[in-house]
Known about the structure:
Elements: H1 9-14, H2 17-30, H3 37-50, E1 54-58, H4 61-71, E2 79-83, H5 88-96, E3 100-104, H6 115-120, E4 126-129, H7 141-151, E5 154-158, E6 166-168, E7 174-176, E8 183-187, E9 201-205, H8 208-218, E10 222-224, E11 227-228, H9 239-249, H10 252-270, E12 276-277, E13 292-296, H11 302-315, H12 345-351, E14 354-357, H13 365-380
Parallel strand pairs: 2-3, 2-4, 4-5, 5-8
Antiparallel strand pairs: 1-9, 6-7, 8-9, 10-11, 12-13, 13-14
The protein binds pyridoxal-5'-phosphate (PLP).
Amino acid sequence: MRPIQMVDTKTQYQKIKTEVDNAVLQVIESSAFINGKPVQDFCNSLSAYLSVKHTIPCANGTDALQIAMMALGLQPGDEVLTPSFTFIATTEVIALLNLTPVFVDVDPKTFCIDPALLEKAITPKTKAIVPVHLYGQMAPMEEIMKIAEKHKLWVIEDNAQAIGSDYTFSDGRKQKAGTIGHIGATSFYPSKNLGAFGDAGAIFTNDDALADRMKMVANHGQSRRYYHDIVGCNSRLDTIQAAILDIKLKHLDEYIAAREAAADFYDNALSGHAMITTPFRASYSRHVFHQYTILLDDGKDPVMLRNGLNSFLAEHKIPSMIYYPVPGHRQKMFEQFNVASQSLPVTDWLTERVISLPMHTELDKEQLSFITGKILEYLKH
Ligand SMILES: *Cc1c(COP(=O)(O)O)cnc(C)c1O
């Protein structure tokens, strides 16, 4: 059996090696390292894939979120509604820009922001909502957009984990993840579903004025060369990364299908077990399985059970991860906002029970049955 990895980007690369190597060499030979032609080519390909008007390239997913929020002209103290149950980047940039993160609890099934609680968290200071499509399962965007419209709030989708997912609205209309809110932000961190060979990110919008503003923000607030109208930052997508991403984008649907097949295998093996809850697949969207995250509970000590599985699997050379061991509202970083005492029961409940299993495009049946066999063996003890 091949060694089991949490993410196997190397085997994936080997399958497209010739094409990727040639593209990288071409960039080196052209020496157009900054804003070379592949950057615009990739943005055009991605806009076409997502059916979105504008794709703005940037350096990483955290910058994508930051640039989006900077472009909206939010003022210090403005409140931004966001989950606590997410990777820290989502909430960190809110605080970095002197905005106030207001944590909203998540739905225990989807792990995404709960629209019923969202509306209750709105105050006169609320200006924006940042839903996160966690683990590849989309947040309920139709309900979120209705609330946003009613209260005139901006919506920035954190789409770092769900690129390629579709959302089906109640009238049957379909739209890609990251193109439903006013702005979508994504990451091409190597382990993401569309991963670069280094850091990379992008921002999406159908709004021309917002697109112009975000391009300016990402380029030192520049309106024309050396004329700087607003305070911005420097965030670019590297030409080499763009060339690689343009090749990998052609394989994205195939990569998603491979992740779904691995998820199906896990579901079949694990879903009947009394102590395991397998991932919920919402009817409104396609789960693209950035992570395959299960909940463990024996009705006694779920943390001990979960941490025990993590160690047991490690003993058998099977990696597993806790995403994320400390939710945002319990991070020291946010002490100033007095959020630790905030009641986010579902977030705390999930944090004690989640464990993510190996998930990538190169898992084979032998590996998957070894993993699921060991999980079931552990739960027999
Ligand atoms: C990865 C990730 C980010 C940040 O992306 P980087 O490219 O690492 O900066 C933001 N939000 C979520 C939910 C992520 O998973």
